[in-house]
Specification:
The complex is a heterodimer of chains A (1004) and B (89).
Chain A: E1 22-31, E2 34-40, H1 44-50, E3 57-58, E4 65-66, E5 79-82, E6 89-93, E7 103-107, H2 133-137, H3 143-156, E8 171-183, H4 187-199, E9 203-206, E10 222-223, E11 226-227, H5 228-241, E12 245-248, E13 251-257, E14 265-271, E15 287-299, E16 303-305, E17 318-320, H6 321-329, E18 338-343, H7 346-357, E19 361-367, H8 374-381, E20 386-389, E21 392-397, E22 404-408, E23 414-418, E24 421-425, E25 428-430, H9 433-436, E26 443-445, E27 450-452, E28 460-462, H10 472-489, E29 523-525, E30 530-531, H11 532-540, H12 546-553, H13 566-576, H14 581-584, H15 598-602, H16 619-624, E31 627-632, E32 635-641, H17 649-662, E33 665-668, E34 673-678, H18 682-689, E35 702-708, E36 714-724, E37 727-732, H19 737-751, E38 758-761, E39 766-772, H20 776-784, E40 800-805, E41 808-813, E42 822-828, H21 832-843, E43 849-850, H22 853-862, H23 895-898, H24 901-904, E44 909-916, E45 928-931, E46 943-951, E47 956-964, E48 973-977, E49 984-990, H25 1000-1003
Parallel strand pairs in A: 1-7, 8-9, 8-15, 9-12, 15-28, 17-24, 18-19, 18-24, 19-20, 33-43
Antiparallel strand pairs in A: 1-2, 3-4, 5-6, 5-7, 10-11, 13-14, 14-15, 16-25, 21-22, 22-23, 26-27, 29-30, 31-32, 33-39, 34-37, 34-38, 35-36, 36-37, 39-42, 40-41, 41-42, 44-47, 44-49, 45-48, 46-47, 48-49
Helix pairs in contact in A: 4-5, 4-10, 6-7, 11-12, 11-13, 17-22, 20-21
Chain B: E1 2-5, E2 9-12, E3 17-21, H1 34-43, E4 51-57, E5 65-71, E6 76-81
Antiparallel strand pairs in B: 1-2, 3-4, 4-5, 5-6
The chains are: A alpha+beta (1004), B mainly beta (89).
Chain lengths: 1004, 89
């Protein structure tokens, strides 16, 4: 590299000429309110380092100054708050945030400022913040918990602040299918993609970075005589020209789900479509959640370099050796001016050579190993630096950033070095996360002192560094072979191609987990501030299994999920308890691999799009009448129709009820479930699903029916009409329509497939209107004319008929929910709008009043009819006073278990009516019943109020409820107590039918 | 998870509703110990770790009830059949 040293500019640490950044596109950005400049192709981290910013945040527990540790998604320290207002996002990793013009970021966990942080006094109290301090410190006295401990802990805990405003961006979900999914576009992934793509297989190549190439961008490799990045661009060009290959950059495959022996699995991936822009472009989501169904997978997710645990290893300026190389080579940024290397692997030495090539003064190379390959020490001799083998960095010092290190040399002598940057390499951990999501356990490898993939999901091949093969040559060879094998396995013929010529490299490592002589705090988990002392404390107190260690110290439980810390912690624990690391095991890694915004899982299903909105065919008419709508299941139904000047809902529904009971009203009941049941055995089928008989129902008649679940509790109720000998039309409640349909399909297909019966939902095919009130018949006579005789003799209560009306097939049912003389008129849905307008016009002379479901509800409570509040999944037919409907002449679903002692217990709560003793008192649904004078306690609970309404006909509130032994207690005075809604009312227990108990009106 | 519906082809999990043990059969309601038999059938179920025959309903598809053999450890779908030997419809 022909770099010419640092540039004098606002970017003091930017090298001239080097890196994969676009120097003709400068970008300005702000960090903690200060303005800086970077380049297109920078991350926020590289731009901050270029500007000489080293302190970027404070730590979670001790508020220690923290800098940038890594150059990837595993970053534990450099968490910043990004953007502002509704787009403010907490805990973004500066190392993966792409720089864009106008980017705003702020440091977290500091007050009042990053440089002067009051919370840092926590460090002075470190003895009480040791592992398990929550459990130990805040136990006593209990009274302080709510008032003091919890508020203080809540304020101090947590990392960034979430925005409290609504997210203005959109999110998408998408599916993709492929023969071969390749995860990671480093050398191994690119080689796999090439050999798979050349076979003609459908390939999806994902990488979390915005550039393909992985470590090829951060190292000074040569492949076939060209630089790593140049080779990558050649491969990328070929892949882009391949019609069956799809490249997803900025896309993290974060989980493996399902699948099995076939090798096909479902993967979840998050594509950050617009996160690299100030705001998403028009019609583009911010992020897209992919479900990728792949027959074969090549996992080339690389490896993560691990830190070494020594005193002060969290000082800003202490960085991973590979990250230093990446900043120098990819971004043209030197992290400091006076550097040293602390390594225990051959790989780390590369950093020394790259720093020297970039013109950085290298104070020392400190290798913990006594014996190092001569080729490395020979090359180091050409640099102006000192080499210590068998030496260790004991402590790193500095107030806000690294200033000095203490080195223990081979002979034991301690020496001090003034440096501002320390590159650390403790070896590499293969990134095995995606191998383990389906339950596979990784396997320990002594050769590389790390876990490697063990039993991997079937159909997945792990290659390159992810498999523990760290040399470039091995990565390219394994990738190409796995890509070819995956192509063959999915039916394609692989094409042999020449192995590329590459740089040789050394990869030996001898692990050094922690430096035992350190005097100062040595961090294992940077993000959760877990120190070596915390691990030792867990060991002393017996929390020595990896799972207990994790929970006791919170090691590996931060947002980085222990990517840089878990193994170090486990290794320290293994040493303390004199066990081998594989014996100790490792914790289970679960999806997601990196944090995923909840909004991405929600996708477009937010707010109004959470579920469909269903409108009846009379909706436009109701809107025109000024209806107020409310949700009923997925449907919008008119709640009431305010007349001009009416503002009080109780006034409105009182008027509507009185109009119905004294004249005539109309209500849209199209939303009730309608199921057409036909076949030779339709009658027998209904006998088995309803508790009462339907085979005896005459043609042209309707009957009320109740259905149980097999456990004996009520499922749903409704009417069924017999339209023909082999055809019934069942109605269900609006809310349970889909559930009943599923129940009937189960009965038909699974329980009794021998029955000749077919069912179909016709809810949406018919518009249906209830016409209720003393004038209902006169209205229908005028409306239907000669089409049908609606006289009481020809069409009595519970009659039904299908007939032709104005050339349209219509159905009429004489059923009543309101208790009035009432009919329901059904027409095909496309005539629904015309039908309601015709009804209104025919009713004009009778003063017809449209009414909504509040008035309907008030009338049904006046009549003691049950709905969803009473059919709530805990009630039996007998509880609802419908026990005698249970036929003794046949078997039906739920019959046997309804006899169980618990369900037949006389002490069960049964349906009753209630009215307040003081007629002006208001009742509240949900209030609990107590006998008068009884103390308010769970033991004294006697049941609860299920439904209440103001009864316009009685002039006071009425209610329905489930009361212990209710049917024996008519006339008793009890108390309805609602601590939540404030009501505490004396009520009288009465029969559940309040109005027209003889039913004279509906028979009239 | 993907289920191979015999009518609709391979479809995503989100189109299906789950019920449970496919071997639920209504016992003889007239047996002397009918109540105990029903109790066992309704409540007392095996919960195997491994292959399990269970009923799934293709709610957002053809409305078929299907007998799906699923490995409860891995969500692998091992077989998809009609719910009864005579076929589902």
């Amino acid at each position: 590299m022909n770099a010419s040293g640092p540039q004098e500019s606002a970017q003091p640490n930017r090298l001239a000429g080097a890196g994969l950044i676009d120097r003709i596109r400068p970008l300005s950005f702000q960090f903690d309110g200060k303005r800086y400049t970077g380049f297109d192709g920078d991350t926020l981290a590289s731009a901050l380092l270029a500007a000489g910013v080293r302190l970027v945040g404070r730590s979670f527990k001790y508020h220690r100054p923290r800098g940038i540790l890594t150059a990837g998604s595993e970053e534990p320290n450099a968490l910043v708050e990004l953007r502002s207002g509704s787009r403010r996002e907490a805990n973004t990793r500066a190392t993966v945030v792409e720089l864009f013009e106008g980017l705003e970021a702020r440091s977290q966990n500091r007050w009042p400022s990053l440089a002067l942080d009051v919370g840092a006094v926590n460090s002075l109290f470190a003895p009480i913040f040791v592992a398990g301090f929550y459990y130990k410190t805040f136990m006593w006295p209990a009274v302080l918990w709510e008032k003091l401990y919890e508020p203080v802990i809540r304020r101090a805990a947590g990392l960034g602040r979430a925005s409290t405003e609504a997210d203005p961006d959109t999110y998408e979900k998408a599916y993709a299918f492929c023969d071969v999914l390749i995860i990671g576009a480093g050398p191994a992934g690119l080689a796999a993609a090439l050999s798979t793509a050349r076979s003609g297989a459908r390939v999806i190549l994902c990488d979390e970075d915005f550039l393909l190439g992985g470590r090829l961008n951060g190292e000074r490799y040569e492949i076939d005589g060209v630089s790593g990045p140049a080779w990558t661009r050649q491969v990328e060009a070929e892949l882009r020209a391949s019609p069956e290959t799809r490249i997803l950059r900025r896309t993290t495959v974060f989980g493996v789900y399902d699948g099995g022996m076939s090798g096909t699995h479902t993967f979840a991936a998050l594509q950050r479509v617009s996160d690299h822009l100030a705001i998403p472009p028009a019609h583009q989501p911010r992020q897209r959640l992919w479900r990728i169904i792949a027959q074969r997978t090549v996992l080339a997710a690389g490896a993560l370099e691990r830190p070494i645990v020594f005193g002060g290893n969290d000082r800003p300026g202490v960085m991973m050796a590979s990250a230093v190389r990446t900043y120098v080579n990819r971004f043209g940024v030197i992290p400091g001016r006076h550097a040293a290397l602390f390594t225990t692997s051959d790989d780390g030495w590369k950093t020394a050579f790259d720093l020297a090539a970039a013109g950085v003064r290298l104070a020392a190379i400190i290798d913990a190993r006594s014996v190092v390959a001569p080729v490395l020490t020979e090359e180091a001799k050409r640099l102006d630096t000192r080499v210590f083998c068998g030496a260790q960095v004991v402590d790193a010092h500095g107030s806000r950033a690294l200033e000095r290190i203490t080195v223990r040399e081979d002979a034991g002598r301690l020496s001090q070095l003034q440096i501002d940057t320390l590159a650390v390499s403790g070896g590499w951990n293969p990134n095995v996360a995606l191998c383990t999501h389906l339950g596979g356990r990784p396997r320990w490898s002594d050769a590389i002192a790390a876990f490697v993939p063990g039993d991997v999901p079937r159909g997945m091949a792990v290659v390159g560094a992810a498999a523990g093969s760290f040399s470039l040559k091995d990565a390219l060879r394994e990738g190409a072979a796995a890509g070819a094998a995956a192509a063959e396995a999915t039916g394609f013929k692989s094409v042999k191609h020449r192995e590329p010529r590459v740089t040789d490299e050394l990869t030996a490592v001898v692990p050094l987990w922690c430096v035992s002589e350190s005097k100062t705090k040595a961090f294992v988990d940077f993000q959760h501030d877990v120190t070596r002392e915390d691990v030792a404390l867990a060991a002393r107190e017996g929390f020595s299994s990896v799972e207990l260690l994790k929970r006791y110290t919170t090691l590996g439980m931060a947002t980085d999920q222990g990517k840089t810390s878990s193994l170090n912690g486990h290794a320290i624990m293994a040493a303390l308890t004199e066990r081998a690391i594989p014996e100790l095991g490792t914790t289970t890694s679960r999806p997601p691999y990196t944090p995923v915004a909840l909004a991405a899982f929600a996708g477009v299903h937010r707010g109004k799009h959470f579920k469909p909105t269903r409108l009846t065919s009379g909706h436009a008419w109701a809107e025109g009448r000024g209806a107020t709508f409310m949700e009923s299941g997925e449907w919008l139904r008119a709640q009431w129709f305010a007349a001009p000047g009416e503002t009080d809902w109780l006034t409105i529904i009182t008027r509507e009820v009185r109009a119905v009971r004294s004249g005539v009203g109309v209500c849209d009941v199209s939303t009730l479930g309608k199921i057409d049941i036909q076949g030779e055995d339709a009658a027998a089928f209904l006998d088995r699903v309803y508790i009462n008989l339907f085979s005896t129902l005459p043609i042209g008649k309707v009957r009320y029916g109740l259905m149980l679940r097999e456990d004996g509790l009520v499922l749903d109720d409704g009417t069924s009409a017999r339209l023909a000998p082999q055809q019934y039309l069942m109605s269900t409640t609006t809310a349970n329509a889909a559930k009943v349909m599923r129940h009937l399909e189960h009965a038909r297909q699974v329980l009794w497939p021998e029955l000749d019966v077919q069912i179909v939902s016709v809810t949406e095919q018919w518009a249906q209107y209830a016409i209720a009130g003393p004038n209902a018949r006169r209205l229908l006579e005028r409306l239907l004319g000669d089409a049908i005789d609606v006289s009481n003799a020809a069409f009595p209560y519970l009659a039904c008929a299908e007939f032709s009306w104005r050339g349209v097939t219509a159905r009429l049912f004489r059923i009543s929910f309101s208790g009035e003389l009432a009919y329901e008129l059904a027409v095909p849905a496309r005539y629904g709008d015309a039908a309601i307008r015709a009804i209104m016009s025919a009713g004009e002379d009778f003063g017809i009043t449209p009414y909504g479901i509040e008035a309907l509800g008030a009338m049904r409570i006046e009549k003691g009819h049950v709905t969803g509040n009473e059919l709530n999944g805990t009630t039996t037919a007998a509880d609802l006073g419908l026990g005698r409907m249970m036929s003794k002449k046949k078997d039906f679903i739920g019959r046997v278990l309804a006899r169980r002692a618990g369900l037949a217990d006389a002490n069960r709560a049964a349906l009753v009516g209630i009215k307040p003793t003081d007629k002006s008192a208001r009742l509240y649904a949900g209030a609990h019943f107590l006998t008068l004078g009884a103390e308010v306690s769970l033991q004294n609970d006697q049941g609860y109020v299920t439904s209440v309404a103001f009864s316009p006909m009685l002039g006071h509130w009425i209610g329905l409820g489930l009361l212990v032994r209710g049917q024996e207690r008519l006339g008793e005075r009890i108390r309805a107590h609602s601590p939540i809604r404030g009501g505490d009312v004396d009520v009288e227990v009465v029969a559940s039918v309040f109005f027209d108990p003889e039913g004279a009106r509906l028979q009239s | 998870m993907r289920i191979q519906c015999p009518f609709c082809g391979e479809r995503d999990l989100s189109e299906f509703a789950y019920l449970g043990d496919a071997d639920f059969r209504r016992p003889d309601p007239d047996a002397a110990d009918a109540e105990a038999r029903f109790f066992n059938a309704v409540y007392v179920r095996d919960n195997p770790a491994g292959p399990h025959d269970e009923l799934w309903y293709h709610a957002s598809g053809c409305r078929s009830w299907l007998r799906v053999t699923r490995n409860t450890r891995t969500h692998e779908i091992l077989a998809v059949n009609f719910p009864t030997p005579s076929g589902g419809s």
